[in-house]
Design a protein that fits this description.
The protein is an alpha/beta fold and 453 residues long. It has helices at 14-28, 66-69, 109-126, 153-165, 183-197, 221-229, 246-250, 258-265, 269-307, 310-352, 356-398, 400-405, and strands at 32-42, 49-54, 59-64, 81-91, 96-106, 144-148, 171-175, 202-207, 234-238, 253-254, 410-413, 430-434, 439-443.
Length: 453
């Protein structure tokens, strides 16, 4: 057997070994959810959090750096059950296999109970539990709606109680899941659907008993707000007598069990039958007394009718009616004659004051005035045109532009001053000569002094 030389062996340093092991661990596992119990929790001055996560069979070291643990909603302590989201790694300096924790939350009923209390305080502060919002249950509902699982024990108990107490009331079941991650949203949607359909006079929201986690769908905010917004009276019958949910506080009535909820919304048929029998007896007695009184009154009226027969009075009233009819006809004829005479007089007066002749006179006057206006305007315009022509001729006579047309020019310095004498310029100065059409830009080449006067 030959021993390989040192040149043929790939010898790892400890640092290289740990670095490559770390790379393998971090590359082979994605982010993981891990549940366990906290122990050896320490928080040094750096702000990082170090602890061990363990269960009955094993343990693993964990590190949660300051940038992540500042978002924790609770203070980690030894013995707490938690769920962490972490990546698998290796601490190279010691060669320790560990978890780098990104987030951590409490596990079990403790976290659920704190979430329950937080939501309860929030909704109570908003007034969702106030008695002013509670509605009375109908004494005799026309139909009872039940929102629950169609296969659970709760619906069997509810139907049994309703059948025993008042089987004549129809029951409408709205099937939902009462447990699971999507149960809360399904229950809330069904409550709003039942409210929109208005098929029932009262709603029972129920499920059987279970742990806090089993009943959690009835502690969700979406369910609480759906119950609060529902215009139909609601009864919450969730779990056993010792179980309380957010739905119990928001509903109009809370029942300790689904069976008690059924008793609360349904009347007792025996009580109603006894009341109906009593009412029937009382109605019979009152009708009998009423018929006796009416019979006595009918007898008395018959005797009076015999004593005062209405035939004679009817004949007198008929004669009086004929007389009044004749008087009314005479009055109408006299009134119509007077109105006809008055109408003829008014028509004659109206004819005398008819505006037709005056309107024709005014039309003729208007035509004459329009003609005079046209003549006056034409004459005035002719006079104004002649005056304008004379003014234009006079203006043209004195205008410097006319002078320029005769061959003269206006000479100015570079800064625009009109030159009247050679004393204001020197040789080499730039001047400008304005002609009738165009301008000349010149340079003074020679100066000739003005002649003596």
């Amino acid at each position: 057997m030959t021993i390989p030389s040192s040149d043929d062996r790939d010898i790892y340093s400890v640092g290289r070994l740990n670095a490559e092991a770390r790379g393998l661990l971090e590359g082979a596992f994605p982010l993981l959810w891990v549940q366990g119990e906290l122990s050896n929790v320490s928080r040094p001055s750096s702000g990082h959090l170090y602890f061990t996560l363990k269960d009955a069979n094993a343990q693993v070291r964990c590190a949660m750096f300051r940038g992540n643990n500042r978002f924790l909603k609770f203070r980690p302590a030894d013995g707490a059950q938690v769920v962490v989201r972490a990546s698998l790694s290796l601490y190279e300096a010691r060669g320790d296999y560990q978890l780098i924790v990104q987030s951590m939350e409490e596990a079990g009923d403790g976290a659920l109970q704190r979430a329950f209390e937080a939501l309860k305080q929030k909704l109570a502060a908003e007034g969702l539990f106030e008695a002013a919002h509670k509605r009375a249950l109908p004494a005799l509902p026309k139909r009872i709606g039940v929102i629950t699982s169609p296969t659970g024990a709760a619906i069997r108990d509810i139907l049994s109680v309703l059948k025993r107490r008042f089987p004549a009331i129809p029951v409408l079941i709205y099937p939902v899941a009462v447990q699971g991650q999507a149960a809360g949203a399904e229950i809330a949607a069904m409550i709003r659907r039942a409210d929109a359909r208005r098929e029932c006079d009262v709603l029972i929201i129920a499920r059987g008993g279970g742990s806090l986690e089993d009943l959690w769908a009835f502690n969700e905010e979406i369910v609480a707000r759906a119950i609060f917004d529902c215009s139909i009276p609601t009864v919450s019958g969730v779990g056993h007598e010792v179980d309380f949910t957010i739905a119990d506080f928001v509903a109009d009535q809370r029942a300790p069990t689904p069976s008690v909820a059924a008793e609360m919304v349904s009347p007792d048929q025996h009580d109603w039958l006894n009341q109906l029998r009593a009412l029937d007896s009382e109605l019979y007695k009152r009708l009998t007394r009423q018929m006796q009184r009416l019979g006595e009154r009918l007898t008395w009226i018959g005797k009076r009718l015999q004593q005062q027969h209405p035939g004679q009075r009817l004949r007198q009233r008929a004669q009086r009616l004929d007389e009044l009819e004749q008087r009314l006809q005479r009055g109408l004829r006299n009134a119509l004659q007077g109105r006809a005479s008055r109408l003829a007089t008014l028509q004659a007066q109206l004819q005398r004051h008819h505006p037709g002749p005056r309107l024709q006179h005014l039309r003729d006057l208007q035509i004459a005035l329009v003609r005079r206006l046209h003549v006056g305007v034409h004459t005035q315009l002719k006079h104004l045109r002649q005056h304008l022509s004379a003014l234009a001729h006079g203006l043209n006579t004195v205008s410097p532009l006319a002078t320029l047309d005769r061959g003269y020019a206006i000479v100015t310095t570079a800064d625009g001053h009109v030159l009247h004498t050679t004393q204001h310029v020197q040789r080499g100065d730039r001047i400008e000569a304005r002609l009738a059409r165009g301008r000349l830009h010149c340079v003074v080449d020679a100066l000739e002094p003005p002649a003596e006067d």
